[in-house]
């Protein structure tokens, strides 16, 4: 589904922060992306999410060479990828329901056509009671679940999560992990960037370990 | 299985997780009541919040600009209309002036000139001013009570032209010169040309002011859009992350500025329309009175007419379109720099 071949990345004229990355992410796969702070996890996620272009190498996503994509083509490709941020990135003026429905609005769908599905997903992630609430009144866990719901509402083929448990307690982290596992079982490939060893020990999955800009894969 | 299928893999899920942690749903919401599934029916909130755009001051600015542009347009159209009326009134008649010449009978010359004029094609009527009438024409400049009979005052012949036929003035002039050497024909071309030049100048000034108004609107909306983009940068980023194209994002801003332009244009243009309507009502009210005659002589009809009202309505639409187009262009340019 996704293939990196000798990918390198540098910011401006600085040193390479990612070097010679070569790996694949298969369909319906589950992997943790880990490494010490500053190892380049977020940069790699940004490459995976097409918000950065590599300075060298080839990135192929869904059988398309990303270097050859125009801006609108990248936007279309992003619709096949869900992204969950550590800081949630919910829009404070929209309700939880509207935040989760945002990707569907972007696709130009009518509200009546997606209403039931969004309500059902919110129920599924335990936010049925909070549909009309604005993000500032949600707890950290609720915000993270809303962010995850927004990332998966369009049933993306790939879900990227950047430190999704970084702002929650261990119990909540476990429950969020279960949510990701459940999404993976429904067919979505999952990449969770984390440096939470305890979380990774909860589930036996492939590990992509970044160290000093290089990637080591432990299947 | 539910409609959307979010719970369809629950069995798989439960088999891989410690049974002690099994939940009825992946997330145990504590038995949410069925009523919680009912979401209040309301239109989704705008993606770009209305309050994040400097709306009120920009609306006021667009309103003032539209008002000034509408006044300019109305005044220019009023002037063009009056000039056209004056032109058609003046252009429907020509004047023959017969100057007294020593050794010639001026009355005979006047009669001959009138006969030449009557014989010309396209002439509807010929009116010969009598000696007394010709003298009374110079009275406002020379004063009354003078023995004007001693002065060589030229005699006037007003020739009214038939509508639809353009007389051959060169031929008439030649015929007059042959029979009455002291007669001269004035077809008012000089007046008409000056009137046309004045009306054209008014139109050029009006267009110039409109261009300035549009330029100020474009600059104001550009600055306001840049401000709105900066304020809403986190929203723009999230929209990118959820797969929005640049044109979708631009539409979110464009809609705001279109409404803002329409609102400002409607206020300013509406005020100008009301002003012109009041002027038309006053004009109708004073029509026939000496003041009305004076105003009509000075300003023409004092009304912009249906074309004027239509032009102002078009101006309102144009201001909204300019605001929407400018914001879209600005957003597109800004988005070029955002990945």
Descriptive overview:
The complex is a heterodimer of chains A (219) and B (339). Chain A is of the alpha/beta class. Helices cover 34% and strands 26% of the residues of chain A. In chain A, the strands form 2 sheets. Chain A has a 6-stranded mixed sheet with strand order 6-7-8-3-9-10, sandwiched between helices. In chain A, helix 3 packs parallel to helix 5 (140-152). The longest helix of chain A has 16 residues, at 170-185. The radius of gyration of chain A is 17 Å and the shape is globular. The model of chain A has no long low-confidence stretch (mean pLDDT 91). Chain B is an alpha+beta fold. Chain B folds into 2 domains: 53-88 and 192-338, no CATH class; 92-187, Alpha-Beta Plaits (2-Layer Sandwich). Helix content of chain B is 64%, strand content 7%. Chain B is built from 10 helices and 4 strands, in the order ααβαβαβαβααααα. Chain B has helices spanning 10-16, 55-91, 106-119, 131-142, 169-179, 189-231, 233-241, 246-286, 290-299, 305-336, and strands spanning 93-98, 123-128, 155-161, 183-186. Chain B has a 4-stranded antiparallel sheet with strand order 2-3-1-4. In chain B, helix 2 packs across helix 8 (246-286) and helix 8 runs antiparallel to helix 10. Chain B is elongated, with a radius of gyration of 38 Å. The model of chain B is unreliable at 8-24 and 30-36 (pLDDT under 50).
């Amino acid at each position: 589904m996704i293939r990196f071949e000798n990918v390198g990345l540098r910011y401006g004229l600085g040193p390479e922060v990612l070097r010679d990355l070569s790996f694949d992410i298969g369909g319906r796969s589950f992997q943790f992306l880990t490494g010490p702070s500053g190892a380049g996890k977020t940069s790699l996620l940004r490459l995976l999410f097409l918000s950065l272009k590599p300075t060298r190498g080839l990135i192929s996503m869904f059988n398309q060479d990303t270097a050859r994509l125009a801006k609108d083509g990248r936007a279309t490709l992003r619709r096949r990828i869900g992204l969950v941020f550590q800081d949630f990135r919910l829009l404070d003026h929209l309700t939880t329901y509207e935040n989760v429905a945002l990707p569907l609005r972007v696709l130009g769908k009518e509200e009546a056509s997606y209403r039931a599905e969004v309500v059902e997903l919110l129920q599924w992630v335990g936010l049925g009671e909070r549909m009309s609430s604005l993000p500032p009144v949600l707890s950290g866990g609720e915000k993270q679940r809303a962010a995850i719901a927004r990332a998966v509402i369009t049933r993306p083929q790939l879900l990227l999560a950047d430190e999704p448990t970084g702002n929650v307690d261990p119990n909540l982290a476990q429950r969020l992990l279960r949510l990701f596992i459940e999404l993976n079982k429904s067919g979505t490939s999952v990449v969770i960037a984390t440096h939470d060893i305890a979380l990774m020990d909860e589930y036996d999955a492939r590990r992509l370990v970044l160290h000093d800009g290089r990637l080591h894969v432990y299947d | 299985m539910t409609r959307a299928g979010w719970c369809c893999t629950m069995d798989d899920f439960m088999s891989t997780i410690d049974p002690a942690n099994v939940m009825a749903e992946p997330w145990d919401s504590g038995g949410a009541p069925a009523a919680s599934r009912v979401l209040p029916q309301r239109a989704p909130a705008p993606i770009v919040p209305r309050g994040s755009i400097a709306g009120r001051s920009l609306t006021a600015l667009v309103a003032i600009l539209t008002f000034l542009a509408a006044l300019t347009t109305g005044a220019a159209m009023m002037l063009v209309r009056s000039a056209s009326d004056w032109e058609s009134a003046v252009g429907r008649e020509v004047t023959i002036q017969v100057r007294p010449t020593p050794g010639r009978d001026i009355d005979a010359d006047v009669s001959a000139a009138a006969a030449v004029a009557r014989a010309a094609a396209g002439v509807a009527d010929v009116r010969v001013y009598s000696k007394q009438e010709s003298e009374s024409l110079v009275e406002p400049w020379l004063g009354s009570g003078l023995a004007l009979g001693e002065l060589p005052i030229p005699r006037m012949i007003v020739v009214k032209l038939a509508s639809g036929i353009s007389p051959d003035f060169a031929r008439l002039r030649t015929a007059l010169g042959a029979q009455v050497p002291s007669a001269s024909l004035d077809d008012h071309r000089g007046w008409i040309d000056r009137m046309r030049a004045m009306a054209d100048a008014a139109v050029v000034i009006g267009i110039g002011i409109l261009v300035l108004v549009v330029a100020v609107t474009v600059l104001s909306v550009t600055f306001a859009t840049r401000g709105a983009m900066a304020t809403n940068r986190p929203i723009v980023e999230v929209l990118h992350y959820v797969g929005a194209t640049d044109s979708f994002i631009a539409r979110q801003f464009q809609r705001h500025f279109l409404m803002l332009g329409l609102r400002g244009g409607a206020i300013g243009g509406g005020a100008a329309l009301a002003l012109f309507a009041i002027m038309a009502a006053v004009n109708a009210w004073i029509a026939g009175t000496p003041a009305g005659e004076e105003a009509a002589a000075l300003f023409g009809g004092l009304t912009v007419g249906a074309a004027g009202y239509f032009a102002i309505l078009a101006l309102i639409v144009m201001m909204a379109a300019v605001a929407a187009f400018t914001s879209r262009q600005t957003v597109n340019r800004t988005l070029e720099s955002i990945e």
